[in-house]
Amino acid sequence: LLNEMKKQRSWSRSSPSLPIYPARVPRFSSNTRSPFFLLIPACADVRQRASPGLRFLPSFRRRCRLSSPLPERGNPEEAETAGQMDFGAEQHGCEHYTRRCRIRAPCCGEVFGCRHCHNQAKNSLEVDLLDRHEIPRHEISKVICSLCNKEQDVQQNCSGCGACMGKYFCEKCNFFDDDISKKQYHCDGCGICRTGGIDNFFHCEKCGCCYSNVLKDSHHCVERAMHHNCPVCFEYLFDSTMDISVLHCGHTIHLECLNEMRVHHHFSCPVCSRSACDMTDAWQKLDQEVAATPMPEFYQKKMVSNKPTTTPCNHLANAGT
Questions:
Q1: Which of 124, 159, 181 is the last residue of a domain?
Q2: Which of 173, 146, 176, 162 is nearest to 239 (CA)?
Q3: Where does the RING-type domain lie (predicted)?
Q4: Tens digits of per-residue pLDDT, 299-318?
């Protein structure tokens, strides 16, 4: 590219007033995410409006992808601001969320990537039982920018460098996330942010949680159905990040745990023992097996008395409930 630009010195001399500014371009190597800065002429789209005097090599055009469209000619400040707002989108965050900030826990004063990082660290087996706790998400008041390390009040854009700390931001939950493909939304009934899109879910006041619109008129209401632990893995369901399934009886369970039960041929609710799925075909097969196995002739006329042989003790008649 530099050799190609050197051949076009006459173009640069004939256009001395053409503004030049740095634009962020990803490095070609896939082993690193560190950007470098390349001086290119200011234009709206370098692939379509490049000056005839400056020709980009075909290999460069294929491998160069701009992170955001460039502003119109003569507005280099807008390009710099747009680059700062979107810089580091895939370089920062934790294993749970991609974002450009960390939080300071109001309970212990320590800095963590997110509330899940805090809860995992403070509830591990290495921590004393009396010191284990979870972070109160609504009490978070301080965040630290991952780009300039400035500690500040909870807000979407950094007051120091101007970077956007999360494309999705909820000031009620103090929550940041760059992956907006999850379709996050805040539910006032639940009091927390959920994923999946607000148009696809409704909040059931009796159950106290959000359900899919498919269950709006067909689910069996159970009071505070998700305000308890999963009956299999014992994780709290209400704010769990895993997929949750609602059984026909109204009880809730992790979808992964339900699939694990089916692998081990358990098809009933762990709470009330009702069938967790339609068992009509299974019952028909059992009836066919019984019909195909007639009673032996020796036992066909045998009768068994159902009267108890002994009288139960009186002190066991009213056993505890």
A1: 181
A2: 173
A3: 230-273
A4: 888 888 776 655 554 444 44
